[in-house]
Design brief:
single chain, mainly alpha, two-stranded antiparallel ribbon, 2 strands, about 80% helix
Amino acid sequence: MTDITGLQRYVRRIVKGATFLDKLISNLALYSLMFTVLTMLFMTILSIILRRWQITVLWIDPCVRHLFFLSAFLGGTLAIGRRQHIAVDIVGKILENAQKFTLKKHLERIVYLVAMITLSWLTIGAIQFVDYAFKYEGVEFLGIHRGVLVSIIPFGCILMLYRFFYLFLTSFQCFSEASTEVHS
């Protein structure tokens, strides 16, 4: 018999909402990445075919460059959610082999915190860069302002920041139990 307090119910609701948002971000990133890669492939092949007849579409190359940039952030977002991001894996494997699971969990939390701090710092810098682009730069191609194009950077950083936050949140036992209830 488990007695659930009001605080525990509140925490479970928060984790349930966070889990829903995490799944939504994961699905949006996956389908956006597939669309982005297919669009890059189509545009690149189109550009190669048109060159045969000396036809150059000037906006294809910069568009493919920005789509590639977006795909890097979307891929990073997916990798973080699957825990395939770059981490201190050597130390983690040593701790796992030594059966020091609690210490390994603490190391993972430290990695998540450092990643969140770093991504927060990068997001602030990226937002300042977007502000600079809107103030001092002009239209890049197809009438799209450069500020809109470089807003890919803070968007990608925020997605990755949330994924690390979610991993950090669910790394605690009480939160991960509430999270697994949502999945079943």
